Amino acid sequence: METVKLTIDGVEVTAPKTATVLDAAWSAGIFVPTLCNDPDLEPYGGCRLCVVEIEKRRGLPTACNTQVAEGMVVHTDTPAVAQVRRSVVELLMAEHHADCLACPKDGRCSLQRAAAFLGIRQHLYPPSARKLPIDDSNPFFYLDSNQCIFCAKCVRTCDEIVGVGAISFMWRGYDSRVATFAGRPIIESTCVSCGECVVRCPVNALVPKVAIQPAHEVKSVCVYCGVGCGIHLGVRGEKVVTVRGDRESPANRGRLCVKGRFGIVDFLNHPDRLKTPLIKKDGQFVKATWDEALDLVASKLSGYKGDQFAAIASAKTANEDNYLLQKFARAVMGTNNVDHCARL
């Protein structure tokens, strides 16, 4: 890979030739605040918070969409840069109806982090009097336009990653906001409820309806289908409270569908979920061990041959497991009665 050398805040940095100034700074451990940048999305430069000074260049370019060059000298924390960043954050805070202690994103909010980095401790401008209705039509998350900072992460995610385009910027000027076509509720749009926009929202404009912070995480694999998406289960006490995608998993690269992101928690914690095998005795189901259950199934199967037997495959198992099931049905039980549960 071809690399270049540049200087950022007096530190010599080696970066790939295709990298941006923001990438180079972060790789060198130099913090540059940003609200609209995301490694999974194309550079946008909309928030104007990552502006820097580059010697021999005019103005204050955004670091997220400025490519590095050999010998480039970058300054990320000059008085001019700090003034622009403070103005941006102060204006955003005027439109942001914030109660940080009551916010589910408290401590994880990018706007809060940027304000702390810039030393902003109070609102310079009076808060906006505009009050927009909260869209709570989706069963899994809220859309609160009063908290939106117009970073466009949600819009770009729905377009670039999911490919659905369920939301966009609607109307103009002061009336602009993220919304579905014709401003209809999200539940009536083409939204697939994958939650990719929710996990990328830097503030609390898009938040899950159930937001509990886990005590620790456990690496696992989603069992809702045979793809095998990597996940991290957030655990608190004896319950799973959150699910997030594993970015290192080659199957999904951190992305999840609606079942993987929102269905697992309810499924695992549901009071009616079966945790042990049940065997019917005297007309009632009673708990049994796995050995007892498997012995009973084996003894029952031995009495059936040919078309008396049928196998139903599961969409929650891998392709290899389903192959073995149909092989068992045809080669052992002597029947072609094989079906599946993957119908929509």
Question: Can you describe this structure?
Answer:
- It is a single chain.
- This protein is an alpha+beta fold and 344 residues long.
- Helices cover 25% and strands 18% of the residues.
- It folds into 4 domains: 3-117, Roll (Ubiquitin-like (UB roll)), CATH 3.10.20.740; 130-210, Alpha-Beta Plaits, CATH 3.30.70.20; 212-273, Single Sheet (N-terminal domain of TfIIb), CATH 2.20.25; 280-340, no CATH class.
- The protein is built from 8 helices and 15 strands.
- Strands 2-1-4-3 form a 4-stranded mixed beta sheet, with helices on one face. It has a 3-stranded antiparallel beta sheet with strand order 9-10-11, with helices on one face. Strands 5-8 form a two-stranded antiparallel sheet.
Oligomer: single chain
Stretches where pLDDT falls below 50 for ≥5 residues?
none
Distance between the termini: 46 Å
> What general outline do the C-alpha atoms trace?
elongated
Strand content: 15-25%
- The CATH topology assignment of the largest domain is Ubiquitin-like (UB roll)
Radius of gyration, taken over Cα atoms and rounded to an integer in Å:
26 Å
Q: What level of helicity do the residues show?
A: 10-25%
CATH level 1 name of the largest domain: Alpha Beta
